[in-house]
Amino acid sequence: CNxxxxxxxxxxxxxxxxxxxxxxxxxxGLNVAKNGTGTGTVTxxxxxxxxxxxxxxxxxxxxxxxxxxxxxxxxTFTGWxxxxxxxxxxxxxxxxxxxVTATFALSTFTLSINTAGNGTVASNPDGIxxxxxxxxxxxxxxxxxxxxxxxxxxxxxTFTGWxxxxxxxxxxxxxxxxxxxxxxxxxxxxxxxxxxxTGSGSGTVSSSPAGITCGATxxxxxxxxxxxxxxxxxxxxxxFTGWxxxxxxxxxxxxxxxxxxxxxxGxxxxxxALSVVKEGTGTGTVTxxxxxxxCGATxxxxxxxxxxxxxxxxxxxxxTFTGWxxxxTGTxxxxxxxxxxxxxxxxxxxxxxxxxxxxRTGNGLVTSTPGGIDCGxxxxxxxxxxxxxxTLTVVPAAGAPFQNWGxxxxxxQTTCTLTLDGDKTVSAxxxxxxxxxxxSASVAIQKGTxxxxxxxxxxxxxxxxxxxxxxxxxxxxxTGTFSPNPAAPPATDRSNRP
Length: 498
What we know:
By secondary structure, this protein is mostly beta strands.
């Protein structure tokens, strides 16, 4: 019997026949699915499913199949769904087609952050914001995740480095293959204040808060934002001249440490003035070693405290140096130690001398023997030593005879001899007159430097008008018209006519 309907067999009995009926167990499919972020395998007992690669299998009806989930290294099995539940082995009776889902999740590990000091730590990927203003100091990350931590110091703070799962001061990169812990260390930011001393003097600089005693310690690191007051104290022989750099003036120097700062303190040696006064009838110079005084021109100079200054007096002309007074005595070099303001007087004397002065009136000259007076141009002579004998001689001009001496001389002689026992003044008087000289070369009359005066003469007695007359010795300002004497000789003989 081979019935196509599978359940019934029709047999026609024309002879003896034999029929075999075959029965088989029903089978049902068991389907396994995997879900979740993790990985793993599911295997069956009896064998058939190895999911991984083979996630479907048909089993005889009534078969008891046990499924076992095995998570991968970085995953966890979180449970069954479908025909099973829970996290233990999944036992399925195959009485129908069945579906089972195994869920695997990636393993997570906790990353914990500790902060010391003022600053924050943030993570990438997000999850941690720890420190000032934040309280997320731990987070769970998938196994194998790379987490980058960044440290940011607060104002006036500095990041000093990682410890724990990281080290150094750069970014911290943590691979989450286990629970990890990292510490971020923050310190107070500091800046260096440097003090330099300048100048010829000495002194100290100290700071509040303490740190600089310069002297010995001229550089110190102060916390960021600190207000540091520097005080300069000059030594006994010095003056404090002022600050430069981050401060100025001569008071206390107040520095806010928001960056590295540098300050200079100037000290100079104290100085004292040494003044020189010159007295006496003579002349001379005073110079100093070391240089500074050249008196002459510079009679006062300030020298450093404790300087040894040597003054030298040098008389000029016929003067003599007669000695020092004030801070020095005697006639040798004057040595002064400038431990205070000092004054020195140098006295120069000269011999007594006299001067002879000649005043001249009218047209004429006065000369002297010995020379010195040529009056004319030079009408004084001196200085002359007491007892000098001088002879004055007059030289009258044409038409202006010598009339008389006056002052220290008298009479009408052409010479006068004097012995000088004091300053003397002599006058010499010459007559005032003039002559007219006719010629044909000029129409102007010259009188020294007083200018030109024009004169006219009548065209009579043989003169051809105008006739130029040269006026010699006439008083300044003479004017008028001059006519020849009717009885005058011919024109060719009329020169030098009064």
